[in-house]
Amino acid sequence: MLEIKNLMVFYENAIAINNINIKCQGEKVTGIFGANSAGKSTLMYTISGIILDVKKKEEMKGGERITVLGNITFEGMDITFMKPSERAKKGIVLCPERRRIFAESSTLENLKIGGYLATKAQAKKTLEYVFTIFPALINLKRREGGFLSGGEQQMLAIGRALMAQPKMLLLDEPLLGLSPLMEAMLARAIRDINRQTGITTLISEQYARPILPIIHHGYILENGGAVLEGNSRELMENPDVKSAYFGL
Ligand code: ATP
Questions:
Q1: Whether the Cβ atoms of residue 155 and residue 108 lie closer than 8 Å to each other
Q2: Residue with CA nearest ligand 1 atom 21
Q3: What is the pLDDT, as a whole number, of residue 246?
Q4: What's residue 122's pLDDT?
Q5: Cβ(96) – ligand 1 distance below 6 Å
Q6: Which of 17, 20, 42, 98 should be mutated for ligand 1, with most atoms under 8 A from CB?
Q7: Is the pLDDT of residue 173 over 80?
Q8: CB-count burial class (<10 Å; 0-12, 13-18, 19+) for 237
Q9: Whether 164 contacts 117, CB under 8 Å
Q10: Residue 204: is it exposed, middle or buried by C-beta count within 10 angstroms (0-12/13-18/19+)?
Q11: What number does the ligand 1 atom closest to the CA of 42 have?
């Protein structure tokens, strides 16, 4: 459903994404695993189109040159240079790294902001769904985003992304900085959302252990290049993956 071909992204002369080919099958969960600076966020920005906004801003202030080569197709359409807002309308929704919750807005307001593209009926239905999948948010409806814990903020960030009616959900390091208990809970929730809604999901993580079991297919990213790919079991049983990501 989403296909990335020969993608290269440069910041000035430094290469951040080096000739990547990735396929995200419809209704499945795809994982991207890599260490710090491997290129995970750049990839997410390039798929969601935010990189084009960053590029424009940099050009306006005479800053660094950002170059994107290759192509990305979504449902058969080339979206490589489509504006991020257009991509959002097509259903490509990014849940960014470090959550970016509106700190002064309440949980409910954050969710409603996420639903700006939804019809009233969709927003109502999705809001109910978000509280079903994350019941912990029910009693936090009126709490300001800035007063939520890291885990609660992440539930809210995923909930807010769901409110935007995604067909393709991009989750950039959703487990970052969370406790093992919260990691396990969120990994389960992400799996359940995919099973129950069929939303195609791409998830990037530095720490593969909690996520590897819930993916259908995954890629290992190193220095901007995809060095290995396989299904959940193949990656979990791969000796290099074991030593790099499981400390075995
Ligand atoms: P992290 O886990 O730290 O978020 P990441 O895998 O998401 O890492 P990216 O943030 O995509 O990696 O970075 C990929 C490479 O691009 C790194 O070498 C990084 O230093 C570089 N990079 C990222 N953003 C910029 C920028 N705005 N200008 C210049 N170089 C950048």
A1: no
A2: 16
A3: 63
A4: 97
A5: no
A6: 42
A7: yes
A8: exposed
A9: yes
A10: buried
A11: 11
Top mutation candidate among 10, 11, 15, 48 for ligand 1, by most atoms within 8 Å of CB: 11
Tens digit of each residue's pLDDT (9 = 90 or more) over 141-157: 999 999 999 999 999 99
pLDDT attached to residue 110: 97
Beta bridge partners of 81: none
3-class secondary structure, 67: strand
> For ligand 1, is residue 166 a contact (CB within 6 Å)?
no
pLDDT of residue 208: 85
- All structural domains of the chain: 2-91+166-246 (3.40.50.300)
| pLDDT tens digit sequence for 204-226 | 999 888 999 999 999 999 999 99
User: For the purposes of burial, counting CB atoms within 10 Å of the CB of 121, is it exposed (0-12), middle (13-18) or buried (19 or more)?
Assistant: exposed
- Does pTM surpass 0.90? yes
Q: What is the DSSP secondary-structure string of 142-211?
A: TSBGGGS-HHHHHHHHHHHHHHT--SEEEEESTTTT--HHHHHHHHHHHHHHHHHH--EEEEEES--TTT
> Can you tell me whether residue 96 is helix, strand or coil?
coil
Measured in Å, residue 41 CA sits from the centre of ligand 1 at: 7
